[in-house]
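Quick illustration for those who missed Monday's session on complexes.
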Amino acid sequence: MTVTLVAAVARNGVIGRDGGIPWKLPGEQARFKAITMGHVLVMGRRTYESIGRPLPGRTTVVVSRRPDWQPPGGRPHGVRVATSVELALRLAAEIDDQVYVAGGALVYADCLPHTDELLISWVDAEPDGDTFFPSVDWSDWAETDRKQHDGWAVARYVRATHTEGYKGSHGDQV
Ligand SMILES: NC(=O)c1ccc[n+]([C@@H]2O[C@H](COP(=O)([O-])OP(=O)(O)OC[C@H]3O[C@@H](n4cnc5c(N)ncnc54)[C@H](OP(=O)(O)O)[C@@H]3O)[C@@H](O)[C@H]2O)c1
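Prediction with NAP bound:
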């Protein structure tokens, strides 16, 4: 199984405000849809409730510590519930060998130790927010790929130990 954490992060670390995302970036959500389509998402209960519905074409494993939590209005097809990130990742692995961790901050933090790669959309803005990307020890991660878009750039990181001999994007041997 490959666990990929996918997030959009502003320059000041903000990822959310008032239960939503404080920006609209042409192409960013379409990119999220394209890469995750057909796979399985793990997300926190608050993120699921902020989206308000299952994302089509993907199985969603929602993490909640409340064993009786159900999506408002009943559990739709394609939505599973787990009471820990470990159980969520185990359940996700039974469904697909590519798992995307889709936030929010609490779930990113708890899934980080289980994550193989990061796909970060760096948003070129400093919005007000109340939810922040967790702190990451970037010396553990090596950037392998970066693509610039208008107002944001997407970068891929793998664990530094997986890239022996790889020449980093700044020419550093990592
Ligand atoms: N920019 C981005 O890429 C991005 C992506 C996703 C979300 N967001 C934003 O982030 C915000 C939501 O993030 P958030 O951090 O507040 O909430 P969250 O991580 O989406 O959900 C938190 C909830 O998930 C459950 N949970 C978290 N860790 C758990 C664990 N280890 N075991 C069991 N359950 C666990 C708990 O649910 P219970 O309380 O039910 O126990 C917890 O209250 C929103 O503003 C959203 O729009 C941004």
